[in-house]
Sequence to fold (372 residues):
Amino acid sequence: MSHFLKPALPALAALSLLNACQSNTSSSETAASGTAADTSATAASATGGQKFLAKPLIKEIYTADPSAHVFNGKIYIYPSHDIETGMPENDNGDHFAMRDYHILSMDSINGKVTDHGVALDVKDVPWAGRQMWAPDAAFKNGTYYLYFPVKDKQDIFRIGVATSKSPTGPFKAEPKPIEGSLSIDPAVFTDTDGKTYMYMGGIWGGQLQRWRSGKYDASDPKMQEPGPKEKALGPKMARLSSDMLSFAEPVKEIQILGQDGKPFLSGDNTHRFFEGGWMHKYNGKYYFSYSTGDTHLLVYATGDSPYGPFTYQGVLMNPVQGWTTHHSIIEKDGKWYLFYHDTELSNKTWLRNVKVTELKRKPDGGFETLNP
Ligand code: FUB
Fold:
């Protein structure tokens, strides 16, 4: 079954079934400032009779995969910039043929959204071939870092890094991808002790299964996934060096376990990791959240260390309109928010729009499930 050829509306069927500079640690551990948020940005939106939990943050361009951060009290969103290229839909996701990144900002959750224009173009990345997918960003020692997955000239996804003195760029790319990086969807998390980690990976079009032997395998990708009764592939991670441009240690796989303490099997596609990982910390616990891909859920698991293992806890959000689902989580002014995307504006799975909605924590720190 293809990664990207499924109908664009699985969501509706499934629904009926069912620190000043680092934003993804809780405010008890890092300072957050800014104006009080109200709730209008999370107000329901309606298109063609359909009701949505929130409205698109901008309508002028298509945006997806929003990695949100609070830098110096302001919200910055690092999304993919979806475009129509006419590429036919296929198993590799060739129709997600993005060529640049635009960064969005807002002073508060309901503030005006500013599009800061092109922050990095694929033509300015010396090693890049095609497809600029979901990026993330970090701030350290006066420099902003944009981490981005793009296929190299051999059509292998690698993760690059680009730097700027401004959170909105323009960013200058390093001449080579991060050594040892692979696959897609970098998510960068700085812990309260100042150590920074990158989580990465995505199966199918994201190529994670091609790295099972430790080396990239260009043969038929359908032969590379574990069988349904085998252990599922986990996301990868590594600590970043203090220069933020390289890994300080070999890339390793993290374990996601069921409540029974056993790793998920590859055939368990309502629980196993697919793509779009995100890490945040709350009350000393590490929350790793991710997309289940072909079952279109955003789910979360918790652990006691940034290295895991992580134990599955539940569903953050039921399927959105559109095949892909990808998110980030930030705290702003004492409230927690989920940034995500759907296809409300286009109803085309490769032309998405980013949204934000408030998350509700349960007394145990977990989340109530949202219906988008
Ligand atoms: O935007 C392209 C890909 O689609 C992302 O890398 C995935 O997370 C999915 O959203």
